[in-house]
Amino acid sequence: MAPKCLNSIAMRLFLALFIAIFIAPNLILAKNTQEIRGLRMNAIDRCWRANPNWRRNRQQLARCAVGYSGKMTGNIGRGLVRYKVTDPSDNPVKPKPGTLRYGATIIRGKVWITFQRDMRIRLEKPLLISSFTAIDGRGVSVSIAGNACLRVFEANNVIIHGLQIHHCRAQPASSVMGPDGRIVNLGQVDGDAIRLISASKVWIDHNTLYQCQDGLLDVTRGSTDITVSNNWFRDQDKVMLLGHDDGYLGDKNMKVTVVYNHFGPNCNQRMPRVRFGYAHVVNNLYQKWAQYAIGGSMNPSVKSEANLFVASKSGKKEKSWRFFSVRDAFENGASFIQTGFGGAKTNYNRQQSFPVVDAQSVRSLTRSAGVLRCTQKSRC
């Protein structure tokens, strides 16, 4: 028995060594190759992630936005205030210096907010973000979770980047500090991760959003010129709503770009659901939805372009819409019913336009969706 036991141990050691030397490096190389390939194809990420000195020039990010938000150059330049969050606490009416709410509401003009260290922030009431505010979570791990979350109300030129936002809850009517240091009275608030209300020129990039009481992202009440990019949406029933309700005609002018996002696993519906307005849904990965992926009402114009839809092995396979589809790809029996025809043209200007990648490359393209894993001393 002893020689057989020794032989068995020796064989296991040999196999472990073989895997460590020959197989594991190849797997790592394959993964890195896919990430590099995705970076080269991603018009946003290749603009700044290749720069090893991005920490010294964080504001370069503002020039990298694509889609209907356009370049966010209004957030940088003369008069910019660089503000660092050092305190994860929150006072909704009298925010303290060093807290996120202080930087997002009290400071006037252009402000670029970063974080001193990893932190989990429990907002006592919804955070109303002022115009010309960039919230930049790169280099640390920042979570906004467990209670109230983010709202952009009648504000413009807003960047939300690099945050984990989850377990957001509905809130009763309350008063909070609002933009430009003004107290705002809020009615009851649904439990959304991010809600835009009459907002414009907003860029939501590289966030991870999941498990909120209502939805993950609502774009409502005339909000327009929005880009939603490189985010990871998962573990949620209602994911993204574009358009307030069937009676709000102000959303006819809404324009939203949804690009390079990863939807799933465990997402049920609304990726997005569109009312009125126009949405360009392009180069996204849909992974095992339950009810439907893209839907809409009130005659919106939607162009679904070069997305990859991977159905679950059980459950609903069909992705139905009344929209224009071009070059979408389907796996595991996924299918769609297209009842709309025509170009559904994007009409991007030069600052908004970007190349569309073939749907078969979407896995590589979205491999880095969500919060990036980068530290203060590493490249993102």
Structure explained in plain terms:
It is a single chain. Strand 1 (about 80-85), helix 3 (about 100-105) and strand 2 form a beta-alpha-beta unit. The termini are far apart. The protein is an alpha/beta fold and about 375 residues long. The protein has 4 helices and 31 strands. The protein has helices at about 1-40, 45-50, 100-105, 360-365, and strands at about 80-85, 110-115, 120, 125-130, 135, 140-145, 150-155, 155-160, 165, 175, 185, 195, 200-205, 210, 215-220, 225-230, 230-235, 235-240, 255-260, 260-265, 265-270, 275, 280, 285, 295, 300-305, 310, 320, 325, 330, 335-340. It has a 10-stranded parallel beta sheet with strand order 1-2-5-8-13-16-19-23-26-29, with helices on one face. Helices cover about 15% and strands about 35% of the residues.
Structural class: alpha/beta
What's the gyration radius in Å?
Answer: 22 Å
Widest sheet: strand order? 1-2-5-8-13-16-19-23-26-29
- Count of beta strands: 31
Distance between the termini: 53 Å
Count of helical regions: 4
Q: Look at the structure and give the mean pLDDT.
A: 88
The biggest sheet amounts to: 10 strands, parallel
Give the % helix: 10-25%
Q: Give the low-confidence spans.
A: 22-31
Oligomer: single chain
Q: Approximately what portion of the residues adopt beta-strand conformation?
A: 25-35%
Give the overall silhouette: globular
